[in-house]
Automatic annotation (TrEMBL), chain A:
Bias (Polar residues): 1-15, 97-116
UniProt GO cellular component terms: CCR4-NOT complex
PROSITE patterns linked: ZF_RING_2
Zinc-finger found in the keyword field: yes
GO BP: protein ubiquitination
Protein name: RING/U-box superfamily protein
Compositional bias per record (Acidic residues), positions renumbered to this chain: 133-142
Pfam families: zf-RING_4
A GO term for molecular function: zinc ion binding
CDD domains referenced in this protein's UniProt entry, alphabetically: mRING-HC-C4C4_CNOT4
Region (Disordered): 1-142, 192-219
Occurrences of domain RING-type (ranges): 244-286
Source species of the chain: Arabidopsis thaliana
Automatic annotation (TrEMBL), chain B:
Protein's name in the database: E2 ubiquitin-conjugating enzyme
Chain ranges of the UBC core domain: 29-176
Major enzyme class: transferase
Domain of life the protein comes from: Eukaryota
Any one GO molecular-function label of the UniProt entry: ubiquitin conjugating enzyme activity
One of the protein's GO biological processes: ubiquitin-dependent protein catabolic process
Keyword presence, ATP-binding: yes
Source organism of the structure: Arabidopsis thaliana
Protein backbone atom coordinates (compact mmCIF):
# COMPACT_ATOMS: atom_id res chain seq x y z
CA UNK A 1 0.00 0.00 0.00
CA UNK A 2 2.80 2.46 0.88
CA UNK A 3 4.62 1.84 -2.43
CA UNK A 4 1.40 2.43 -4.36
CA UNK A 5 0.82 5.72 -2.59
CA UNK A 6 4.43 6.85 -3.32
CA UNK A 7 4.01 6.11 -7.03
CA UNK A 8 0.73 8.05 -7.05
CA UNK A 9 2.42 11.04 -5.42
CA UNK A 10 5.28 11.04 -7.94
CA UNK A 11 2.80 10.85 -10.84
CA UNK A 12 0.87 13.83 -9.55
CA UNK A 13 4.00 15.94 -8.93
CA UNK A 14 5.41 15.50 -12.48
CA UNK A 15 2.83 17.43 -14.56
CA UNK A 16 2.38 21.15 -13.94
CA UNK A 17 -1.37 21.30 -14.61
CA UNK A 18 -3.61 19.18 -12.39
CA UNK A 19 -6.52 17.38 -14.01
CA UNK A 20 -9.25 15.87 -11.87
CA UNK A 21 -9.97 13.26 -14.54
CA UNK A 22 -6.43 11.91 -14.46
CA UNK A 23 -6.55 11.64 -10.69
CA UNK A 24 -9.86 9.75 -10.92
CA UNK A 25 -8.34 7.27 -13.38
CA UNK A 26 -5.15 6.77 -11.37
CA UNK A 27 -7.12 6.19 -8.16
CA UNK A 28 -9.36 3.66 -9.84
CA UNK A 29 -6.43 1.88 -11.51
CA UNK A 30 -4.65 1.62 -8.17
CA UNK A 31 -7.73 0.20 -6.50
CA UNK A 32 -8.40 -2.21 -9.35
CA UNK A 33 -4.84 -3.58 -9.18
CA UNK A 34 -5.49 -4.81 -5.67
CA UNK A 35 -8.02 -7.41 -6.80
CA UNK A 36 -7.16 -9.38 -9.93
CA UNK A 37 -10.13 -11.73 -10.04
CA UNK A 38 -13.35 -10.50 -11.65
CA UNK A 39 -15.60 -11.79 -8.90
CA UNK A 40 -13.71 -9.99 -6.16
CA UNK A 41 -13.72 -6.81 -8.21
CA UNK A 42 -17.48 -6.99 -8.67
CA UNK A 43 -17.95 -7.53 -4.94
CA UNK A 44 -15.69 -4.54 -4.23
CA UNK A 45 -17.73 -2.34 -6.57
CA UNK A 46 -20.96 -3.33 -4.83
CA UNK A 47 -19.37 -2.52 -1.47
CA UNK A 48 -18.24 0.89 -2.77
CA UNK A 49 -21.91 1.60 -3.50
CA UNK A 50 -22.73 0.78 0.11
CA UNK A 51 -19.95 3.11 1.31
CA UNK A 52 -21.37 5.98 -0.73
CA UNK A 53 -24.84 5.36 0.64
CA UNK A 54 -23.55 5.31 4.22
CA UNK A 55 -24.10 7.96 6.91
CA UNK A 56 -21.79 10.78 8.03
CA UNK A 57 -20.10 8.47 10.54
CA UNK A 58 -18.55 6.59 7.64
CA UNK A 59 -17.08 9.83 6.29
CA UNK A 60 -15.63 10.58 9.73
CA UNK A 61 -14.08 7.11 9.82
CA UNK A 62 -12.49 7.72 6.40
CA UNK A 63 -11.08 11.02 7.65
CA UNK A 64 -9.60 9.29 10.69
CA UNK A 65 -7.85 6.81 8.39
CA UNK A 66 -6.49 9.81 6.41
CA UNK A 67 -5.25 11.48 9.59
CA UNK A 68 -3.19 8.41 10.52
CA UNK A 69 -1.03 8.85 7.41
CA UNK A 70 2.21 11.01 7.53
CA UNK A 71 1.95 14.80 7.40
CA UNK A 72 4.02 15.25 4.23
CA UNK A 73 1.09 14.00 2.06
CA UNK A 74 -1.70 16.06 3.65
CA UNK A 75 -2.13 18.46 0.73
CA UNK A 76 -2.96 15.98 -2.11
CA UNK A 77 -5.29 13.83 0.09
CA UNK A 78 -8.11 16.35 0.66
CA UNK A 79 -8.32 16.89 -3.10
CA UNK A 80 -8.68 13.14 -3.59
CA UNK A 81 -11.36 13.10 -0.91
CA UNK A 82 -13.31 15.71 -2.84
CA UNK A 83 -13.03 13.56 -5.96
CA UNK A 84 -14.37 10.59 -4.03
CA UNK A 85 -17.28 12.71 -2.84
CA UNK A 86 -18.13 13.56 -6.45
CA UNK A 87 -18.04 9.88 -7.37
CA UNK A 88 -20.31 9.09 -4.42
CA UNK A 89 -22.86 11.71 -5.44
CA UNK A 90 -23.07 10.35 -9.00
CA UNK A 91 -23.54 6.78 -7.84
CA UNK A 92 -25.99 7.84 -5.15
CA UNK A 93 -28.15 9.60 -7.76
CA UNK A 94 -28.09 6.57 -10.04
CA UNK A 95 -29.15 4.26 -7.22
CA UNK A 96 -31.98 6.61 -6.22
CA UNK A 97 -33.22 6.66 -9.81
CA UNK A 98 -33.26 2.87 -9.88
CA UNK A 99 -35.26 2.82 -6.63
CA UNK A 100 -37.76 5.46 -7.72
CA UNK A 101 -38.60 3.83 -11.06
CA UNK A 102 -39.08 0.19 -10.12
CA UNK A 103 -41.18 -0.94 -13.14
CA UNK A 104 -38.90 0.90 -15.60
CA UNK A 105 -35.58 0.07 -13.96
CA UNK A 106 -33.91 -0.94 -17.22
CA UNK A 107 -34.87 2.31 -18.96
CA UNK A 108 -33.51 4.41 -16.09
CA UNK A 109 -30.30 2.35 -16.13
CA UNK A 110 -29.85 2.91 -19.86
CA UNK A 111 -30.39 6.66 -19.39
CA UNK A 112 -27.87 6.84 -16.55
CA UNK A 113 -25.05 5.14 -18.49
CA UNK A 114 -24.49 7.90 -21.15
CA UNK A 115 -24.51 10.56 -18.42
CA UNK A 116 -21.55 8.94 -16.70
CA UNK A 117 -19.74 8.44 -20.01
CA UNK A 118 -20.17 12.10 -21.01
CA UNK A 119 -18.92 13.37 -17.64
CA UNK A 120 -15.88 11.06 -17.67
CA UNK A 121 -15.02 11.84 -21.32
CA UNK A 122 -14.99 15.59 -20.62
CA UNK A 123 -12.31 15.16 -17.94
CA UNK A 124 -10.27 12.22 -19.25
CA UNK A 125 -6.87 12.47 -21.01
CA UNK A 126 -5.15 10.44 -23.73
CA UNK A 127 -2.39 8.71 -21.77
CA UNK A 128 -2.38 4.90 -21.56
CA UNK A 129 -0.05 2.32 -20.05
CA UNK A 130 0.45 -1.46 -20.21
CA UNK A 131 -1.53 -2.04 -17.02
CA UNK A 132 -4.45 -0.05 -18.36
CA UNK A 133 -4.56 -2.19 -21.51
CA UNK A 134 -4.83 -5.34 -19.37
CA UNK A 135 -7.66 -3.75 -17.41
CA UNK A 136 -9.45 -2.94 -20.64
CA UNK A 137 -9.42 -6.63 -21.58
CA UNK A 138 -10.92 -7.48 -18.19
CA UNK A 139 -13.56 -4.79 -18.72
CA UNK A 140 -14.57 -6.34 -22.03
CA UNK A 141 -15.16 -9.68 -20.31
CA UNK A 142 -17.20 -7.89 -17.67
CA UNK A 143 -19.28 -6.20 -20.36
CA UNK A 144 -20.21 -9.55 -21.87
CA UNK A 145 -21.35 -10.78 -18.43
CA UNK A 146 -23.33 -7.57 -17.99
CA UNK A 147 -25.18 -8.05 -21.27
CA UNK A 148 -26.25 -11.49 -20.10
CA UNK A 149 -27.50 -9.85 -16.89
CA UNK A 150 -29.48 -7.36 -19.00
CA UNK A 151 -31.20 -10.25 -20.78
CA UNK A 152 -32.13 -11.78 -17.41
CA UNK A 153 -33.40 -8.40 -16.22
CA UNK A 154 -35.60 -8.04 -19.31
CA UNK A 155 -37.22 -11.41 -18.58
CA UNK A 156 -37.70 -10.43 -14.92
CA UNK A 157 -39.34 -7.13 -15.87
CA UNK A 158 -41.73 -8.92 -18.22
CA UNK A 159 -42.77 -11.17 -15.33
CA UNK A 160 -43.12 -8.12 -13.09
CA UNK A 161 -45.48 -6.36 -15.49
CA UNK A 162 -47.71 -9.43 -15.58
CA UNK A 163 -47.86 -9.89 -11.79
CA UNK A 164 -47.59 -6.29 -10.60
CA UNK A 165 -50.02 -4.95 -7.93
CA UNK A 166 -49.98 -1.49 -6.26
CA UNK A 167 -49.78 -2.60 -2.59
CA UNK A 168 -47.07 -5.13 -3.36
CA UNK A 169 -44.93 -2.47 -5.05
CA UNK A 170 -45.11 -0.32 -1.89
CA UNK A 171 -43.96 -3.27 0.20
CA UNK A 172 -41.12 -3.90 -2.26
CA UNK A 173 -39.82 -0.35 -1.75
CA UNK A 174 -39.88 -0.78 2.02
CA UNK A 175 -37.99 -4.08 1.80
CA UNK A 176 -35.33 -2.54 -0.43
CA UNK A 177 -34.82 0.36 1.99
CA UNK A 178 -34.40 -2.07 4.86
CA UNK A 179 -31.82 -4.05 2.91
CA UNK A 180 -29.91 -0.82 2.14
CA UNK A 181 -29.81 0.10 5.82
CA UNK A 182 -28.48 -3.35 6.68
CA UNK A 183 -25.80 -2.91 4.01
CA UNK A 184 -24.75 0.37 5.63
CA UNK A 185 -24.29 -1.38 8.96
CA UNK A 186 -22.05 -3.98 7.31
CA UNK A 187 -19.90 -1.21 5.83
CA UNK A 188 -19.38 0.30 9.29
CA UNK A 189 -18.17 -3.06 10.57
CA UNK A 190 -15.80 -3.37 7.62
CA UNK A 191 -14.25 0.07 8.21
CA UNK A 192 -13.59 -0.75 11.86
CA UNK A 193 -11.32 -3.70 10.99
CA UNK A 194 -7.86 -3.66 9.35
CA UNK A 195 -7.26 -3.56 5.58
CA UNK A 196 -5.74 -7.05 5.50
CA UNK A 197 -9.06 -8.62 6.48
CA UNK A 198 -11.03 -6.97 3.66
CA UNK A 199 -10.95 -10.09 1.50
CA UNK A 200 -12.39 -12.27 4.27
CA UNK A 201 -15.17 -9.78 4.90
CA UNK A 202 -15.97 -9.76 1.19
CA UNK A 203 -16.40 -13.54 1.23
CA UNK A 204 -18.57 -13.25 4.38
CA UNK A 205 -20.73 -10.47 2.99
CA UNK A 206 -21.52 -12.45 -0.16
CA UNK A 207 -23.59 -14.94 1.87
CA UNK A 208 -25.48 -12.41 3.98
CA UNK A 209 -28.27 -11.56 1.46
CA UNK A 210 -29.17 -15.25 1.32
CA UNK A 211 -29.34 -15.40 5.10
CA UNK A 212 -31.59 -12.35 5.11
CA UNK A 213 -33.92 -13.92 2.58
CA UNK A 214 -34.31 -17.14 4.59
CA UNK A 215 -36.39 -15.69 7.48
CA UNK A 216 -38.70 -14.15 4.90
CA UNK A 217 -39.17 -17.53 3.24
CA UNK A 218 -39.94 -19.51 6.37
CA UNK A 219 -43.22 -17.72 7.28
CA UNK A 220 -44.46 -18.45 3.78
CA UNK A 221 -43.77 -22.14 4.29
CA UNK A 222 -45.55 -22.03 7.63
CA UNK A 223 -48.56 -20.44 5.99
CA UNK A 224 -48.50 -23.11 3.31
CA UNK A 225 -48.45 -25.77 6.03
CA UNK A 226 -51.55 -24.23 7.58
CA UNK A 227 -53.45 -24.76 4.33
CA UNK A 228 -53.75 -28.61 4.69
CA UNK A 229 -55.34 -28.04 8.10
CA UNK A 230 -58.12 -26.21 6.29
CA UNK A 231 -58.53 -29.27 4.08
CA UNK A 232 -58.89 -31.50 7.14
CA UNK A 233 -61.43 -29.12 8.62
CA UNK A 234 -63.36 -29.16 5.36
CA UNK A 235 -63.33 -32.97 5.25
CA UNK A 236 -64.61 -33.17 8.83
CA UNK A 237 -67.60 -31.03 7.85
CA UNK A 238 -68.86 -33.74 5.49
CA UNK A 239 -69.85 -36.00 8.43
CA UNK A 240 -73.13 -34.21 9.12
CA UNK A 241 -76.60 -35.54 10.03
CA UNK A 242 -79.06 -35.29 7.17
CA UNK A 243 -82.02 -33.84 9.09
CA UNK A 244 -82.64 -31.41 11.91
CA UNK A 245 -83.44 -33.18 15.21
CA UNK A 246 -85.84 -30.40 16.21
CA UNK A 247 -88.10 -29.98 13.18
CA UNK A 248 -87.13 -33.20 11.31
CA UNK A 249 -86.53 -31.19 8.13
CA UNK A 250 -83.62 -31.97 5.81
CA UNK A 251 -80.51 -29.88 6.45
CA UNK A 252 -79.42 -27.92 3.37
CA UNK A 253 -75.90 -26.67 2.67
CA UNK A 254 -76.33 -23.58 4.82
CA UNK A 255 -77.61 -25.56 7.78
CA UNK A 256 -74.94 -28.25 7.36
CA UNK A 257 -72.20 -25.65 7.88
CA UNK A 258 -73.91 -24.11 10.88
CA UNK A 259 -72.39 -25.09 14.25
CA UNK A 260 -73.70 -22.75 16.95
CA UNK A 261 -72.55 -24.66 20.04
CA UNK A 262 -69.16 -26.19 20.93
CA UNK A 263 -70.88 -29.38 22.10
CA UNK A 264 -71.45 -30.26 18.44
CA UNK A 265 -75.25 -30.30 18.45
CA UNK A 266 -76.45 -29.41 14.95
CA UNK A 267 -79.78 -27.86 13.99
CA UNK A 268 -81.21 -25.73 11.21
CA UNK A 269 -81.12 -21.95 11.21
CA UNK A 270 -84.88 -21.68 11.56
CA UNK A 271 -84.97 -23.71 14.78
CA UNK A 272 -81.91 -21.89 16.11
CA UNK A 273 -83.66 -18.55 15.64
CA UNK A 274 -86.79 -19.81 17.38
CA UNK A 275 -84.74 -21.08 20.34
CA UNK A 276 -82.85 -17.78 20.56
CA UNK A 277 -86.17 -15.92 20.65
CA UNK A 278 -87.13 -18.21 23.56
CA UNK A 279 -84.73 -19.15 26.34
CA UNK A 280 -81.59 -19.28 24.19
CA UNK A 281 -80.25 -22.56 25.57
CA UNK A 282 -78.68 -25.34 23.51
CA UNK A 283 -80.99 -28.40 23.25
CA UNK A 284 -77.99 -30.72 23.38
CA UNK A 285 -76.12 -29.53 26.46
CA UNK A 286 -78.72 -27.16 28.00
CA UNK A 287 -76.18 -24.32 28.19
CA UNK A 288 -76.93 -20.80 26.93
CA UNK A 289 -75.68 -19.95 23.45
CA UNK A 290 -72.74 -17.56 23.34
CA UNK A 291 -72.88 -14.20 21.56
CA UNK A 292 -69.92 -15.01 19.28
CA UNK A 293 -71.80 -17.88 17.70
CA UNK A 294 -74.72 -15.55 17.01
CA UNK A 295 -72.38 -13.35 14.95
CA UNK A 296 -71.21 -16.48 13.18
CA UNK A 297 -74.83 -17.26 12.40
CA UNK A 298 -75.35 -13.77 10.95
CA UNK A 299 -72.31 -14.15 8.71
CA UNK A 300 -73.28 -17.63 7.56
CA UNK A 301 -76.87 -16.71 6.69
CA UNK A 302 -75.63 -14.83 3.63
CA UNK A 303 -73.96 -17.59 1.68
CA UNK A 304 -73.31 -20.66 3.79
CA UNK A 305 -70.99 -23.06 2.00
CA UNK A 306 -69.94 -20.39 -0.48
CA UNK A 307 -68.65 -18.29 2.40
CA UNK A 308 -66.54 -21.18 3.62
CA UNK A 309 -65.19 -21.78 0.12
CA UNK A 310 -64.48 -18.07 -0.19
CA UNK A 311 -62.63 -18.15 3.11
CA UNK A 312 -60.46 -21.08 2.07
CA UNK A 313 -59.87 -19.57 -1.36
CA UNK A 314 -58.87 -16.27 0.23
CA UNK A 315 -56.40 -18.18 2.39
CA UNK A 316 -54.96 -19.81 -0.73
CA UNK A 317 -54.73 -16.44 -2.51
CA UNK A 318 -52.93 -14.99 0.51
CA UNK A 319 -50.33 -17.76 0.38
CA UNK A 320 -49.84 -17.28 -3.36
CA UNK A 321 -49.52 -13.50 -2.97
CA UNK A 322 -46.88 -13.96 -0.27
CA UNK A 323 -44.85 -16.20 -2.59
CA UNK A 324 -45.20 -13.84 -5.55
CA UNK A 325 -44.13 -10.87 -3.43
CA UNK A 326 -41.04 -12.73 -2.21
CA UNK A 327 -40.14 -13.86 -5.73
CA UNK A 328 -40.51 -10.41 -7.32
CA UNK A 329 -38.56 -8.86 -4.45
CA UNK A 330 -35.68 -11.26 -5.07
CA UNK A 331 -35.74 -10.54 -8.81
CA UNK A 332 -35.81 -6.80 -8.19
CA UNK A 333 -32.69 -6.92 -6.00
CA UNK A 334 -30.88 -8.93 -8.66
CA UNK A 335 -31.82 -6.41 -11.35
CA UNK A 336 -30.68 -3.45 -9.24
CA UNK A 337 -27.30 -5.05 -8.52
CA UNK A 338 -26.72 -5.93 -12.17
CA UNK A 339 -27.61 -2.41 -13.34
CA UNK A 340 -25.29 -0.87 -10.76
CA UNK A 341 -22.44 -3.12 -11.89
CA UNK A 342 -23.04 -2.05 -15.50
CA UNK A 343 -22.75 1.61 -14.53
CA UNK A 344 -19.52 1.01 -12.56
CA UNK A 345 -17.98 -0.94 -15.41
CA UNK A 346 -18.70 1.87 -17.87
CA UNK A 347 -17.17 4.44 -15.54
CA UNK A 348 -14.01 2.36 -15.07
CA UNK A 349 -13.72 1.72 -18.81
CA UNK A 350 -14.02 5.36 -19.87
CA UNK B 1 -97.59 -33.04 -0.75
CA UNK B 2 -99.28 -29.69 -1.28
CA UNK B 3 -99.22 -29.09 2.46
CA UNK B 4 -95.52 -29.96 2.52
CA UNK B 5 -94.70 -27.58 -0.30
CA UNK B 6 -96.63 -24.75 1.31
CA UNK B 7 -94.79 -25.41 4.53
CA UNK B 8 -91.43 -25.11 2.80
CA UNK B 9 -92.35 -21.83 1.12
CA UNK B 10 -93.73 -20.39 4.34
CA UNK B 11 -90.66 -21.42 6.26
CA UNK B 12 -88.38 -19.81 3.68
CA UNK B 13 -90.16 -16.47 3.78
CA UNK B 14 -90.45 -16.30 7.54
CA UNK B 15 -86.84 -17.29 8.17
CA UNK B 16 -85.32 -14.97 5.56
CA UNK B 17 -87.51 -11.89 5.24
CA UNK B 18 -89.41 -11.24 8.46
CA UNK B 19 -87.84 -10.73 11.84
CA UNK B 20 -90.41 -12.76 13.76
CA UNK B 21 -91.56 -16.36 13.69
CA UNK B 22 -95.32 -16.65 13.44
CA UNK B 23 -97.23 -19.06 15.72
CA UNK B 24 -98.74 -20.70 12.67
CA UNK B 25 -95.27 -21.66 11.41
CA UNK B 26 -94.29 -23.14 14.76
CA UNK B 27 -97.54 -25.10 14.90
CA UNK B 28 -96.95 -26.49 11.41
CA UNK B 29 -93.45 -27.48 12.42
CA UNK B 30 -94.73 -29.22 15.55
CA UNK B 31 -97.38 -31.09 13.61
CA UNK B 32 -94.85 -32.30 11.06
CA UNK B 33 -92.49 -33.46 13.78
CA UNK B 34 -95.20 -35.22 15.80
CA UNK B 35 -96.35 -37.25 12.82
CA UNK B 36 -92.80 -38.48 12.32
CA UNK B 37 -92.41 -39.23 16.03
CA UNK B 38 -95.68 -41.16 16.10
CA UNK B 39 -94.50 -43.36 13.22
CA UNK B 40 -91.19 -44.11 14.87
CA UNK B 41 -90.49 -47.83 15.45
CA UNK B 42 -88.10 -48.87 18.17
CA UNK B 43 -87.60 -52.30 19.75
CA UNK B 44 -87.01 -51.01 23.27
CA UNK B 45 -89.98 -48.70 22.89
CA UNK B 46 -92.27 -51.56 21.87
CA UNK B 47 -91.49 -53.56 25.00
CA UNK B 48 -92.30 -50.82 27.49
CA UNK B 49 -94.59 -48.31 25.78
CA UNK B 50 -97.55 -48.48 23.41
CA UNK B 51 -99.11 -45.27 22.12
CA UNK B 52 -102.12 -44.40 20.02
CA UNK B 53 -104.25 -41.40 19.02
CA UNK B 54 -107.71 -41.06 20.63
CA UNK B 55 -108.83 -39.06 17.59
CA UNK B 56 -106.86 -39.75 14.40
CA UNK B 57 -107.05 -36.15 13.15
CA UNK B 58 -105.59 -34.56 16.28
CA UNK B 59 -101.85 -35.22 16.56
CA UNK B 60 -101.51 -32.99 19.65
CA UNK B 61 -103.36 -35.51 21.85
CA UNK B 62 -101.79 -38.91 22.59
CA UNK B 63 -102.61 -41.74 24.90
CA UNK B 64 -100.18 -44.45 25.87
CA UNK B 65 -99.72 -47.40 28.19
CA UNK B 66 -96.56 -47.80 30.23
CA UNK B 67 -95.64 -51.28 31.44
CA UNK B 68 -94.14 -51.61 34.89
CA UNK B 69 -90.49 -52.68 34.79
CA UNK B 70 -89.48 -56.11 36.03
CA UNK B 71 -88.05 -56.22 39.54
CA UNK B 72 -89.98 -53.32 41.03
CA UNK B 73 -93.26 -52.98 42.93
CA UNK B 74 -95.07 -51.96 39.73
CA UNK B 75 -94.21 -55.22 37.97
CA UNK B 76 -96.92 -56.68 35.71
CA UNK B 77 -98.84 -53.41 35.91
CA UNK B 78 -100.20 -51.55 32.86
CA UNK B 79 -100.57 -47.81 33.51
CA UNK B 80 -102.47 -45.56 31.15
CA UNK B 81 -101.11 -42.04 30.63
CA UNK B 82 -102.55 -39.07 28.78
CA UNK B 83 -100.25 -36.81 26.76
CA UNK B 84 -101.26 -33.21 25.93
CA UNK B 85 -98.85 -31.50 23.53
CA UNK B 86 -98.78 -27.67 23.37
CA UNK B 87 -98.78 -25.81 20.04
CA UNK B 88 -95.25 -24.53 20.70
CA UNK B 89 -93.83 -28.05 20.96
CA UNK B 90 -90.87 -28.84 20.88
CA UNK B 91 -90.00 -25.49 22.47
CA UNK B 92 -92.39 -26.23 25.37
CA UNK B 93 -92.65 -29.55 27.22
CA UNK B 94 -95.74 -31.77 26.91
CA UNK B 95 -98.11 -32.34 29.83
CA UNK B 96 -98.35 -36.01 30.82
CA UNK B 97 -100.75 -37.29 33.47
CA UNK B 98 -101.44 -40.79 34.81
CA UNK B 99 -105.04 -41.89 34.29
CA UNK B 100 -104.39 -45.01 36.40
CA UNK B 101 -103.95 -44.57 40.15
CA UNK B 102 -100.36 -45.24 41.21
CA UNK B 103 -98.50 -45.05 44.53
CA UNK B 104 -95.24 -43.30 43.54
CA UNK B 105 -93.14 -40.56 45.18
CA UNK B 106 -92.91 -38.48 41.98
CA UNK B 107 -96.57 -38.82 40.95
CA UNK B 108 -99.35 -37.05 42.78
CA UNK B 109 -102.64 -38.62 43.74
CA UNK B 110 -104.39 -36.98 40.81
CA UNK B 111 -101.78 -38.31 38.39
CA UNK B 112 -99.50 -35.33 37.87
CA UNK B 113 -95.85 -36.20 37.16
CA UNK B 114 -93.16 -34.04 38.78
CA UNK B 115 -89.92 -34.73 36.92
CA UNK B 116 -87.27 -32.13 36.04
CA UNK B 117 -87.09 -33.08 32.35
CA UNK B 118 -90.76 -32.11 32.00
CA UNK B 119 -90.12 -28.76 33.65
CA UNK B 120 -86.95 -26.73 34.10
CA UNK B 121 -84.68 -29.19 32.31
CA UNK B 122 -86.78 -29.69 29.22
CA UNK B 123 -84.83 -29.78 25.95
CA UNK B 124 -86.03 -29.35 22.39
CA UNK B 125 -84.11 -32.48 21.43
CA UNK B 126 -86.33 -34.72 23.59
CA UNK B 127 -89.24 -36.57 21.99
CA UNK B 128 -92.53 -37.91 23.33
CA UNK B 129 -91.24 -41.47 23.08
CA UNK B 130 -88.10 -40.60 25.00
CA UNK B 131 -90.17 -38.97 27.74
CA UNK B 132 -92.41 -42.03 28.05
CA UNK B 133 -89.36 -44.26 28.37
CA UNK B 134 -88.03 -41.93 31.06
CA UNK B 135 -91.29 -42.25 32.98
CA UNK B 136 -91.01 -46.02 32.72
CA UNK B 137 -87.52 -45.72 34.19
CA UNK B 138 -88.53 -43.58 37.16
CA UNK B 139 -91.15 -46.14 38.14
CA UNK B 140 -88.35 -48.44 39.28
CA UNK B 141 -86.08 -45.64 40.53
CA UNK B 142 -87.75 -42.53 41.96
CA UNK B 143 -85.76 -39.38 41.37
CA UNK B 144 -85.11 -36.37 43.59
CA UNK B 145 -86.73 -34.06 44.55
CA UNK B 146 -89.73 -35.95 45.88
CA UNK B 147 -93.18 -34.58 46.49
CA UNK B 148 -93.12 -33.48 50.13
CA UNK B 149 -96.91 -33.32 50.36
CA UNK B 150 -97.31 -36.80 48.93
CA UNK B 151 -97.97 -39.73 51.25
CA UNK B 152 -96.01 -42.05 48.98
CA UNK B 153 -92.93 -39.84 49.23
CA UNK B 154 -93.05 -39.73 53.03
CA UNK B 155 -93.50 -43.47 53.29
CA UNK B 156 -90.71 -43.98 50.73
CA UNK B 157 -88.35 -42.04 52.99
CA UNK B 158 -89.45 -43.57 56.30
CA UNK B 159 -90.16 -47.20 55.61
CA UNK B 160 -89.06 -48.57 52.22
CA UNK B 161 -90.65 -51.99 52.73
CA UNK B 162 -93.99 -50.54 53.69
CA UNK B 163 -93.82 -48.32 50.60
CA UNK B 164 -93.15 -51.30 48.36
CA UNK B 165 -95.99 -53.22 49.95
CA UNK B 166 -98.49 -50.42 49.36
CA UNK B 167 -97.24 -49.87 45.81
CA UNK B 168 -97.65 -53.52 44.97
CA UNK B 169 -101.15 -53.54 46.41
CA UNK B 170 -102.17 -50.50 44.34
CA UNK B 171 -100.69 -52.06 41.22
CA UNK B 172 -102.68 -55.25 41.68
CA UNK B 173 -105.79 -53.27 42.48
CA UNK B 174 -105.79 -50.54 39.80
CA UNK B 175 -103.21 -51.38 37.10
CA UNK B 176 -104.26 -54.88 36.21
CA UNK B 177 -104.07 -55.35 32.44
Amino acid sequence: MISDSITNASATSAPTARDFGKKKRTNRSAKLKQSKLGLRREQWLSQVAMINKGDKEEMESNRRIGSEKPDQRDLPRPVENLDEDNNGTHRHESFIESLSNSPNSILSGMNSIPNFSSSSSSGSGGSCSGNITEEEDADDDGCLDDWEAIADALAADDEKHEKENPPESCQEHEDIKQSALIGGADVVLRDAKADSQRRKQKSNQAWRPDDKLRPQGLPNLEKQRSFPVMNLHFSSVTVVPSSCPICYEDLDLTDSNFLPCPCGFRLCLFCHKTICDGDGRCPGCRKPYERNTIKFEASVQGGGLTIRLARSSSMFCRVVCEYIRWYTNFKYIKVAISLFLIACENLAYL
Amino acid sequence: MMCFQNFKVRKFFTSRNSGKVSPDTVSKSAENRLWKEFQEKDDVLKIHVRSWLPSPENIFRWEATVNGPVGCPYEKGVFTVSVHIPPKYPYEPPKITFKTKIFHPNISEIGEIFVDILGSRWSSALTINLVLLSICSILSNPVEPLLVSNHAARLYQKDRKAYEKVAREWTLKYAKG
